[in-house]
Structure formats: structure tokens, C-alpha cells
Amino acid sequence: MKVLVIGPGGREHAIVRSLLADPAVSEVHAAPGNAGIAQVVPTHAVNANDPAAVTELAQKLEVDLVVVGPEAPLAAGVSDAVREAGIPVFGPSREAAQLEASKAFAKQIMAEAGVPTAMARVAANADEAADALDAFGAPYVVKDDGLAAGKGVVVTEDREAALAHAQACFTAGGTVVIEEYLDGPEVSLFVLSDGKTVIPLSPAQDFKRIYDGDRGPNTGGMGAYTPLDWAPEGLVDEVVSRIAQPTVDEMAKRGTPFVGVLYCGLALTSRGTRVIEFNARFGDPETQAVLARLKTPLGGLLLAAAKGRLDEERELRWSREAAVAVVLASENYPDTPRTGDRIRGLKKAGAVEGVHILHAGTKLDDDGNVASAGGRVLAVVALGEDLQEARERAYEGIGLIRLDGGQYRTDIAAKAARGEITVPERAGKAGV
């Protein structure tokens, strides 16, 4: 099987790495890829958001499967164009990707499917926003309705700051979704879907804020780990039966079947499991940790989803080890990241036992050296017998990498490794 992976980031590097480990996969290509991906597979300088260009490349390469990584190509209709050309594609249609592209649309689907989520209001101007903020009270949760690469959400005790974020979205021509605040720890669960059948992956937890202790602004994600030994027993089955399957069924009923990954961002609250948000693709950096533990060949799974044959798949096999991914970000991320700096120590870091490096915002400079090219530069992923060992290995690895102004969190998976995460009582139930 020949596979083309679309996207430039760490998630795509993780997917490429897993595909290369699948005996049924003979060849992998990436577009546009990054410096790390280019070290292991051919890359193609194609605009990932251009449906015609991606389709033309897939036809030229005569691939058997196209895997679309990021949200922007999905919202641009890349998977629709590839599908219309008769090539199997793992990634939802533009209409189905509205589950991520529009928070308001996702809320509508959840309401119709009976999926438990936070109460919310859509606001289109400052007066409506103020009314909604006062109705729910602090902490205030304000979300840009459209795609914002994981950075369109503000959670704050400061009413003025919440209003200012809403106003910035209105000024840019958008609307906002204002929600009640959800207490309890957060969980990311990826669910593969072929439009009818769903198969869950291993739950993970990611770290959105830039600084230790969950301080500072939101980012696309600064690290992740899996498995979650503290999660309530039966959580995955509950999420599949109460959240993922009803959502996939509702999308099919509307004539817009969801084929790809439904990313369920969850809060385990005192009133039960609630959906914070849906994404229409693998999350980054959770994918880097989750796929590091997946033993079932990935290519066959994704092709089965693309062809509507997930019901033929057996239960997934997982490594007993724990995985921790720590993201190295550029100076001044998530504002205006500094780029173009040389990255040193990658070979030394990759030689640490249990460690591999997944590139995100990287490129080769004029001298052929790996340099930073984005906000989140790379992830150091480590496997270990338990979270503590995986953490030690990941931090040993990232400590060997040199990037001027580089920054990373030092507390990824720390609380979980110490057994300090508590789930509010009754949170194991997805019911009201």
C-alpha cells in the first residue's frame, strides 16, 4: 500500500513514523512535510490547503490512501476533492469537518444527538456577549466560533478580558460561543470512524498553557501523555456509547457521514463527562504520545476507515509502556515566534533509550542544518515502564537539544506520575 500524508507538523511526523512500521505499507510520501519527515520519506512542495493540487499529486503518485492531518485542509475541502477522484481518503468531508470548523454547529449536533456538553450561547455582538457572560458567571469561557489552531479560547476570571476577546472575534468578522465553565480534569480521546463504525484509541491528556502549572496563554499544546491510569473504569466505553457513536450516527443521518478521526475533548466533571469540543482530526501533540504505544498496524486501520470497513477490524493492541511527549517551542511562542535558529543535539537526544524525536516547525537552512520554522518546533517522545520512567527519558532527551530562546514545560505528566490527579465524584458517568 502506498500512502500520501498531508500536513507539515508533528502530528504528521507521528503518522508517517507509524505508517513506516506497518508491514503492509510499501511507500509513504508527505506534502509538504518538514525537515524531520524529509529525512525518512519523500516530501512534495504542495499547498496542503489546495484541493486540486493535493488531488493531482495523489493521482501522479498513484497512492492507495491519502491521510489528511491538519484541520485547515479539511475545512478547505481537500478530502472531498480526493474522494471525488476515486482515491480512498482518511479525513472528513468539508461538511463533516464543520464539527471542528464551527463551534456553534458542533453544539447543534450535540444537542440533536443528546450528547452531554457545556451549556452555551452564541453571541454576535458585545451586548449579546455581555448578557451571556453574566448568565454563566465566572470563570468565563469565550471561544472563537471558527478555526483558531487551538488558540481561540479564553478562560478567565476577568470579565473585561473575556469581553475583549469576544470583541476581537467580532472585529475580525466572526461570532463567539460563550459557555459555562466545566470543572474536573480534561481527557482527549481519539475515535476512528468510517461513517458508521467507531473504534476508540487510548485516552491521553494534553497541556494547553505555555507555562508550568497551567499558567499563561493557550497554545496548540505543549505536551501529552498516555495511558491515564487515573481515569474512571469504563470511561472509554461510556464515551463511545454516549458521545462518539451518537455523533457519528447524527452526521450519517444528515447525509454527511464522518470518516476520519473524531477527537473528543472531554472534561470529567462533578456532573459527569462533558464534551468541551470536537476536532475533526488527530490532536497535536496527543497523537505523538498515543501512536507511540499503538501496536496494531496503522495503515490497515486508516484504509479500513476510508473504505467503510472498520467493522471488520479486531480490538486494537497497545504497548504496556507509558508514553510522554514534551514539546519544544520557539522563543515568544504563542505570540510571534522567533524562527530561523539552528537546532543542535538532535542525534544525542534521539539516542536516549526509549526516545524518538518528532519534528513540527522545522526546515533545513542554506547550509543543510535543521532550523526552527514555527512556534512549536518539535516533540521529544519517550516510552518507559511507567510514566515516571517515560518522563525521565523525555526530559533527558529534551535537555540535550539546543535552540536559542527555546522553551518547554517541565511538568508534563508530573501530577499523574505522582498520583495527584483526582476525578470529581460521579464523573465516571456521562449522564446528567
From TrEMBL:
Listed EC numbers: 6.3.4.13
The protein's annotated catalytic reaction(s) are: 5-phospho-beta-D-ribosylamine + glycine + ATP = N(1)-(5-phospho-beta-D-ribosyl)glycinamide + ADP + phosphate + H(+)
Q: Which residues form the ATP-grasp domain?
A: 107-307
Decide whether keyword ATP-binding is in the record. Answer: yes
Q: Highest taxon of the source?
A: Bacteria
Where is the secretion signal located?
A: none
Keyword Nucleotide-binding in annotation: yes
Which cofactors are required for activity?
Answer: Mg(2+); Mn(2+)
Instruction: Cite the entry's keywords alphabetically.
Output: ATP-binding, Ligase, Nucleotide-binding, Purine biosynthesis
Q: Which Gene3D superfamilies match?
A: 3.40.50.20, ATP-grasp fold, A domain, ATP-grasp fold, B domain, Phosphoribosylglycinamide synthetase, C-terminal domain
* Pathway entry: Purine metabolism; IMP biosynthesis via de novo pathway; N(1)-(5-phospho-D-ribosyl)glycinamide from 5-phospho-alpha-D-ribose 1-diphosphate: step 2/2
Q: Which InterPro entries match?
A: ATP-grasp, ATP_grasp_subdomain_1, PreATP-grasp_dom_sf, PRibGlycinamid_synth_ATP-grasp, PRibGlycinamide_synth, PRibGlycinamide_synth_C-dom, PRibGlycinamide_synth_C_sf, PRibGlycinamide_synth_CS
GO MF: phosphoribosylamine-glycine ligase activity
* Similarity comment: Belongs to the GARS family.
NCBIfam families assigned to the protein according to its UniProt record, in alphabetical order: purD
Designated name of the protein: Phosphoribosylamine--glycine ligase
Q: Which organism is it from?
A: Sinomonas terricola
